[in-house]
Amino acid sequence: MRPDIVIPVLMGCALLWWIGRGMGWSTRLVVAALTLLLIVGILLLERSLQ
């Protein structure tokens, strides 16, 4: 796997863990899904502009 994909995903997971410590499991899952959709959207946008 390429580091330009793996590193942002790992950083996003660490940030979600840090922020989500006080959240319930359902809220964590929703935030994680939205964050992953945002990362995928940004990657697709970058690839379409190249």
Quantity of strands, as a count: 0
Largest sheet: none
How much is the radius of gyration in Å?
Answer: 12 Å
Termini separation (Å)? 20 Å
* Strand percent estimate: under 5%
Mean model confidence by pLDDT? 80
Instruction: Provide a count of the helices.
Output: 2
What is the H-and-E element order? Answer: HH
Query: In terms of quaternary structure, what is this?
Result: single chain
The helical percent reads over 70%
Instruction: List unreliable stretches of 5+ residues.
Output: none
Structural class designation: mainly alpha
Which shape, going by the Cα principal axes?
A: elongated
3D architecture notes:
- The model has no long low-confidence stretch (mean pLDDT 80).
- With 50 residues, this protein is mainly alpha-helical.
- Helix content is 84%, strand content 0%.
- Helix 1 (3-19) runs antiparallel to helix 2.
- The radius of gyration is 12 Å and the shape is elongated.
Keywords:
single chain; about 50 residues; mainly alpha; 2 helices; about 85% helix; about 0% strand
List the helices and strands and how they pair.
Elements: H1 3-19, H2 25-49
Helix pairs in contact: 1-2
What is this entry, summarized?
With about 50 residues, the protein is an all-alpha fold. It is built from two helices and no strands.
